[in-house]
Amino acid sequence: MSFYQMMRTQIDTACTTAEAFTKLYYESVDKKRHQMARLYMDNGLLVWNGNGANGKDDIQKFFQELPRTEHTLTTLDAQPIVDDAVATQLTFLIQVSGTVRLSGAPMKPFQQTFMITAQGDKWKIVSDCFRLQDGLF
């Protein structure tokens, strides 16, 4: 298989994985928040609008304290990370944007970036950065 074919396969896999992963993630955060810890690595990192949580137990506690949410995605992009930094570990960078409603408040635009990695037959979040877009310049 040529380098181009190998990269194309990895990109296709990243896109397919991102679609399935984000569907599971946003269903969980909006409707099954008590199960969020299972999506993160034991030492996963979350930065949510400038507030941080480290480790899946702290991340679970953080999500339990957030107001109820309703997310709508408008864009989704995924790229394989092919670098010595991840060796042969299958790892993807996923970028999402859309709108979110927090506890009945008006919809606000958001952006979110995940780094996920294969752990056995499951995908786990290594890092997660969520940012509300409050106002324009």
TrEMBL record:
Keywords: Cytoplasm, Nucleus, Protein transport, Transport
Gene3D superfamilies listed in its UniProt record: 3.10.450.50
Its job: Has a role in nuclear-cytoplasmic transport of proteins and mRNAs.
The protein's name in its UniProt record: NTF2-related export protein
InterPro entries given in the database record: NTF2, NTF2-like_dom_sf, NTF2_dom, Nuclear_transport_factor_2_euk
UniProt xrefs under SUPFAM superfamilies: NTF2-like
Location of this chain's protein in the cell: Cytoplasm; Nucleus
Species assigned in the record: Anopheles sinensis (Mosquito)
GO biological process terms, semicolon-separated: mRNA transport; nucleocytoplasmic transport; protein transport
